[in-house]
């Protein structure tokens, strides 16, 4: 696992959101997962940008209790990467934080990764705290994690030229009245060394439009090109789904998103 989420509701102890099955809604261009109880409802989703190498992840937390309470949300993304050709793990990087979008940048100075930058930026609820050094946060999903023990992070980064295990960890806090929501929107992507902040600025302003364009692109490929009709509903639906999967099979290469 590379992504971990923790939660504290009111005066209840901090806990990890576990991996038990959730209700879900799945399309080729978006995934949504739902779960709730008497205190809270959580919706987690992700979708993709049409023209930029980035995805948009959102967590919506709703107070379903009868009383106001302070909710605390912790997200932890292991920021190591693998090379595209050999799948070699690259787990050493230096990191930085930018107040514009409360963004964490992870910088890999390796020819195998083309000196790329990985970023996580916040497009809605601003974080209360952050950390970008995995040696400080401790192992996620365990009782030894810094947030689970203290509820705080350090704001620590990995200063250049030192390289360590990078993470993008954030804490969000908000007092919610009954029925009120807190929405965390993270833009996760990659960039060349000289274009990271410019790309993040664009995505902070245009990420909704980018995901809408991606959805539109997939639907047009499915319903407007190469129509297949056999008269068998099951077979026709399978053909539509297959066309959608082919439309989403794209990756970023040499400044272009290609099949």
Summarize the structure.
This protein is α+β, with helices and mostly antiparallel strands. It has four helices and 17 strands.
Largest sheet: 8 strands, antiparallel
Distance between the termini: 27 Å
The number of E-state strands comes to 17
Basic shape: globular
Strand order of the largest sheet: 3-4-5-6-15-12-11-10
Determine the structural class based on helices, strands and strand pairing: alpha+beta
Number of DSSP helical runs? 4
Oligomer: single chain
Strand content: 35-45%
Percent helix, as a range, is 10-25%
Task: Provide mean pLDDT, rounded.
Answer: 93
Spans of at least 5 consecutive residues with low confidence: none
Secondary-structure element order, N to C: EEEEEEEEEEEEEHHEEHHEE
Radius of gyration: 20 Å
Structure explained in plain terms:
The chain has 259 residues and is an alpha+beta fold. The protein starts with a strand and ends with a strand. The strands form four sheets. Strands 3-4-5-6-15-12-11-10 form an eight-stranded antiparallel sheet, with helices on one face. The protein has a five-stranded antiparallel sheet with strand order 2-1-7-14-13. The chain contains four helices and 17 strands. Helix 3 runs antiparallel to helix 4. A hairpin with a 6-residue loop joins strand 8 and strand 9.
